[in-house]
Design goal:
This protein has three helices and 22 strands. It is mainly beta and 322 residues long.
């Protein structure tokens, strides 16, 4: 039992976050609510199972309430009071949260101030009734600015040719945060181009089955230095900062994943935490390895693994190195 939240929970401290952000799980028994709290760190929630409501308010103001379900993604605005309610009388609800608590805790090193600051961030939350209604604005670069998505598993994505594999993507900007998120998907029989970015990308597999390679240092580092992560629906992993990584779909359905992360378009924090050049050739100053430049064992291994599963490889149009 987690006394602060009055619910079951567990912190998730993954190496790749490098203490810039972190995750935690919260589980609410049927009909139960979490304890109200507020804090000076940003917080995203992704609903793993269950349904319910969330209340958000500032001191002395009327709460705003909205409903969530499995697949919902939302962010509680900075330093607002908030509380989660499980809408089922019998079934537990489980949510994944990703927060900026580590970096804020290490900067302030004062828990009383972190959890009891009276300041109201009107630029983050203005108590509009429609704040959490799911409406938003689509910007160039596949950016959807909103405060709530009812089901990211079904959210329509936009084509992102530069990342290869016929993949699609949408980037979310929530609650005027510095922390952001995105959802990507790539088809059966394909794999994405290898790239790198800063730490703290909490990757959650929403559908599909496959694996990822991760390695530090040179883009042409030998295969014996690579770390392999096998994944399926529900897997969570965090690539370390500036490590090369590449995702491979060996399943029979498109692979879709959520990443809650640093590196937004609206607000920047530090170059190391950013995601600039993730779809640009490393030979031209970017942070992506193009298909013709990848290690030839990458494609051969992928073909072998797909053949073992009876999955047709559909990479011929992408000029991969074999």
């Amino acid at each position: 039992k987690w006394a602060r939240l009055d619910a079951k929970g567990a912190y998730l401290r993954l190496m790749g976050a490098e203490d810039t952000d972190n995750g935690y799980l919260i589980e609410l028994d049927g009909g139960k609510s979490s304890a109200p709290e507020k804090h000076l760190f940003e917080e995203y929630f992704f609903v793993l199972t269950g349904r319910g409501t969330c209340e958000v308010w500032n001191e002395g103001e009327k709460p705003t309430s909205f409903e969530w379900q499995e697949g919902s993604l939302f962010s509680v605005p900075l330093n607002t009071l908030h509380r989660l309610h499980n809408g089922s009388g019998s079934l537990a609800a489980r949510l994944l949260a990703v927060t900026t608590m580590p970096i804020m805790m290490n900067l302030l090193h004062n828990t009383e101030f972190l959890f009891s600051c009276p300041y109201v961030f009107r630029d983050r939350y203005d108590a509009r009734k429609e704040y959490f209604d799911g409406s938003g604005t689509l910007y160039t670069g596949r950016v959807w600015e909103t405060n709530f998505v009812a089901d990211i598993k079904r959210f329509q994505l936009k084509e992102w040719k530069e990342r290869g594999a016929g993949g699609k993507n949408i980037r979310f900007e929530f609650a005027n945060n510095t922390m952001v998120s995105h959802v990507s998907e790539f088809p059966v029989g394909t794999y994405k181009k290898c790239h790198r970015h800063g730490p703290g990308y909490h990757v959650v597999l929403l559908s599909g089955e496959g694996y990822s390679y991760l390695w530090p240092g040179d883009p042409d580092a030998p295969a014996n230095t690579w770390t392999e992560v096998k994944w399926k629906t529900g897997t969570l992993f965090v690539p370390p900062g500036r490590w090369w990584h590449q995702h491979f779909n060996t399943g029979r359905e498109p692979a879709r994943y959520l990443a809650i992360r640093w590196g937004g378009n609206k607000w920047k924090l530090a170059e190391y935490l950013d995601n600039q050049g993730v779809d640009k050739d490393v030979n031209e100053g970017g942070n992506q390895i193009e298909y013709p430049d990848q290690d030839p064992t990458i494609h051969r291994t992928y073909v072998e693994r797909c053949a073992a599963k009876g999955v047709e490889v559909k990479m011929d149009e992408f000029n991969v190195r074999v």
